[in-house]
Structures are given as C-alpha cells and as structure tokens.
Amino acid sequence: MSLRYAVLGILSIQPMSGYELKKVIDHSVGHFWTADQSQVYRTLAGLVEEGLASRRTVVQDDRPNLHVHNATERGLAALDEWLASPLRTPPTREPFLARLFFADRMPTEAVRELLESRRREVGEQLAALEAIAVPPADGGVGNMLRVATLENGIAHAKTELDWLATTLRRLDRATA
Amino acid sequence: MSLRYAVLGILSIQPMSGYELKKVIDHSVGHFWTADQSQVYRTLAGLVEEGLASRRTVVQDDRPNLHVHNATERGLAALDEWLASPLRTPPTREPFLARLFFADRMPTEAVRELLESRRREVGEQLAALEAIAVPPADGGVGNMLRVATLENGIAHAKTELDWLATTLRRLDRATA
DNA sequence: CACCATTATTGGACAATGCATATATAGGTG
DNA sequence: CACCTATATATGCATTGTCCAATAATGGTG
Predict the structure, then answer these.
(1) Is B93–A144 a contact, with Cβ atoms under 8 angstroms apart?
(2) What is the pLDDT of residues B17-29, one digit of tens each?
(3) C-alpha angle B5/B10/B14, rounded to 5°?
(4) What pLDDT digit, counting tens, does each position of B74-114 carry?
(5) Distance from CA of residue B106 to its chain's centroid?
(6) In chain B, which residues have their Cβ closer than 8 Å to the Cβ of A152?
C-alpha cells in the first residue's frame, strides 16, 4: 500500500522512468521498503490510470523507449493526504524469531548455528547501511529526516547484534 | 510461509482447535507473528490436507463441535526440516519510515505529530511486551529461547523510543 | 425481549507481492 | 559467432494474507 506513495514521493522530487525508479528505490529507500521490478511497473501503471501520475514517452533510437513518469497535481495532493492520514502500523513479521521460538527441537549446535547465521546476516545489513553515503547536512528538515531513517536502520541492526551476543552467551551457559 | 510452521510448532506442544490456536497465537507468538482468524483455519485445513496434521472432532452439545488438531509424524518431520533449512529473511517493510522519508512536504508541526504518534504507539507496544508474564526460568533451552524472543521485541522497542527522542530533538533544533 | 458477546468454523472476494518469462536492441567478451 | 549484460517495459500465475459475511448455539445485559 505504501509503495504507491513511496513512488509518488520519489516522482515528486524527480520525474523518472520505471527502470530508473527501480534503481532509486533499491538505493535510497531500500532499507525500509523494497519492490520487485514488475511491481514498480504495475504501480506506475496504476498511478497513471488513476491520474496521479502522467507518462511521457521519450523516443530513443539506440535503446527501447523511455516512459518518463511525473506526479500530477492530483498525485501530489494524494501524497499529502497520505502523509497526513493516521498511521496504522501493520503487525510485525519476524521469521527468524518464529524459528527461534521452536528451535529447541533441534540440537544445541543447530540453535547456535541459527543465531550465528542471523549474526552474519545482520552484520552485512549493518555494513550496507553504514556504506550508504550520508548527504552533507544542509540544515534542512528533509535532509535531516532522510538521514534519520538511515540511522533508524543502523540503530536497530546494532540492537539486534547486541541481543544476539547476549542470547548466544545464554545459550552457552544453559548448555554448559 | 512461516505461519504453517508456527502452527505446526504450537500443535507439537499441544493439540488444539482453530479457535484456541488463534488465541494462543495472539498471546504467545503475537509479538513476532500474527494471523487473521480465517487464515488460521485455512492453514489448519491445508496442514490436514497435506497430512501434516490430523483432526479429530469433539462433539459438544452446548456449543459447536470442536476440531482438535494434532501434528502428525510427518508434520513434526516437516517442522524439523523447516527449522534446519537456510534462513532467508524477507525485506523490511516500514511504513512509518516510508512516511517520515517524505514528511518534509508537511508543516513541521505535522512532522512532530507524526513522531509523537509513533512514540505513543511504540510506548504501548513496549508496555504490552513487558506485561507478558515471563515463565519462571527452568534452566531449559526452550524456555530461555522463548524469553529471548520477548526480550528481542523489548530491546527493539526501546531502541525505537531512543531514536524517536533523538529525532525529535533534532527536529526542534532544525526548526528553532 | 432485543441485542450483543462468546464459542467455533467456513467461504468468497480481492489486494499486494514475487517469480518467471517475453520482447527488443546494443555493446562487450571469449 | 555465441553468449552475456545492460537498457526498458510488460504480462501471467501462484502465494500469502486481509476483510467481510454466513452459520449456529448459548448466555448475559439493558
């Protein structure tokens, strides 16, 4: 549901093609929202159909044509409406915790391996987040907020790593 | 996908009806996995169809009949297989961050309200998690792991609250 | 007595997403 | 020349899950 608005939000900053949009999503909002390529195109098609975005074909003779999409007046209005609408957070889904909850059916070594593999995964995520270039602070609210979303991801990754370390320690103690 | 196995996991501990299962899910694994009532029944039906669970009808004359579900041998085997299978974490979806990312389209007061409303929400979540009774430590690995999943939620909630406090402070500074 | 909640299960409609695949062209590599 | 990668868009299909409503019996509240 939020993808529509994330797309609209990006288009409000800069008009672009589906192909380009997919890349921007991966690199700039990818840490809190992702989308499949087909989903990006479908979302764009939906926005155009509802008059929230317009499309303009740019003919390229060396490559397939570009469909550059632009947020319309109504699109921007819809975006603002969404921003002001009450926040309702969907329930958390944590497959890793779901597994851990029943993990004592496995030998302790396997439980340890589960925790270790999670540690590797989160470690990589953290590294990826920290590698994202932080734009120079320009004192603007927009800039600050975008940096904050990044730091949110970093903070949670660190929390997860801390928790993993503690849990691994407890596992050692429980099986000593 | 994990719901199948969460259900199987619960049934492996204790056989129960769909109605009961829904309540157990809400209270014991609800902090990392939730399911709609209809989804619970559909999942049970699917498990029975695949021979991973069996159902036994308990006739009740004062109420509708109960369908008590039990994990079968094959069900337990499937559960163990899932536990040992490689972990692949689905991408994060954070509608709140998606909103915050574009929130500078709104007046500062609205941004502050967005952060405050998130703070209230996470505060309530944290209170709910802390209210869940921690079973007395029995030295077992299973017990320790289940407490750990709870503490995972608590740790992340606290991290979120810290981050919110920092972000609100920055917002004040940026708009002073 | 009307209404509502609780217990208990089931089914239809439908939105969101992902995976696979198709189409078309250009440029680079072995 | 065969193959792969990048550019660029699009469609079909399956899965997962939510919302809504139906069915059915009982017990409590105003």
Answers:
(1) no
(2) 999 999 999 989 9
(3) 145
(4) 999 999 999 999 988 898 899 999 999 999 999 999 999 99
(5) 32
(6) 94, 97, 160, 163
